[in-house]
Predict the structure.
Amino acid sequence: MKDHYQVLVVGGGTAGLTVAAQLRNQADPPEVAIIEPSEKHYYQPIWTLVGGGVFPREISERDEADFIPEGAVWIRDAVASFDPEANTVATRDGKTIGYDYLVVCPGIQIDWDKIPGLAESLGSNGVCSNYSYETVPYTWETLRHLKGGRAIFTQPATPIKCGGAPQKIMYLTADHLRLKGALDDTDVQFMSPGLVVFGVKEFERTLKKVIARYGITFNIQHELVEVRGDKGEAVFKVTAEDGSVSEKVLSFDMLHVTPPQSAPDFIKQSPLANAEGWVDVDPSTLQHNRYPNVFGLGDAGSTPNAKTGAAVRKQAPTVVQNLLQYMATGYIDDPVVYRGYSSCPLVTGYGKLVLAEFDYDNKPMPSFPFDTTQERYSMYALKVYGLPQMYWHGMLRGRV
């Protein structure tokens, strides 16, 4: 390992590997190093289906080493701090590494401890979450033993990766209960801190029909604030139309929690962060607003798009092409523009999916020449069979 690299990529997740691969695939590739502590890499979008009993979790796991691009250097360490004035980063192991250009994409931080009682309750008494490799099997264990009672699904008030995921597992749960004849005996409730079912009205119309079909109660302005796993109780902060706040305690037989999330602490505490703690980048070019030799993408970025792997698929070439321009001339004369594209494959049952694709303005951006606002088996098959292959063999290899 050297102490200075031409391009230093912070994070070896979806964004980091995709950018690094695209850079190394150039005819005259730059020198690239990736700082990433994890030995394993996960295809996280499949965890919804793992929680719904479609796949074992092992299908989502690969060795990180298998996806480090040829010619790139893997630094098996973690960043502790940034000094963009000196063009260096300090690592957890005490090293200082310099760079000419920096790409920051460490992903998002799961803040399990932000909800009292959640961390201690996970994995028992019906408290489950699809948001980690360790916890996702218990979702299916809880679901397959559920015979009635109350099943609650939550979404936090923070930004999260895959904004539709909290609802997807609810629809699979309702469909599973329907298939075994227990749906009528189960009170299925969704707790949203917001005011709408989905932010894009064309897809929200379909989801409202799905909610009605399953008899789900969709609660707005309800935020989970405490889990009492041993008592089978969840505590919610409820905000009324007049702004008044009250507390609601509900018993449950199943509680699927989407935990609060934020930018990683080492990003929040760095000069690269904006006031909210995210990597402060231009939403169109993904170049840092204050340090022009720094670019950022993925879930830790300040861009207001939905935080999904599909967004990274469009962000990565934006970063690569704009970075290459900046490397060649010292400025970006003809920028490649990212328009906020993101996609949320909304599983609405076994064999049913609504493919929601949209931009910064929450306007649909369909990739297919048919009405994608409707539930389709073809789109479910795309999620189950097509997208994982595109991810492992396309995106992470810098090919799409």
The first helix runs from residue 14 to 24. The first strand starts at residue 4 and ends at 10. The chain has a mean pLDDT of 97. The chain has nine helices and 21 strands.
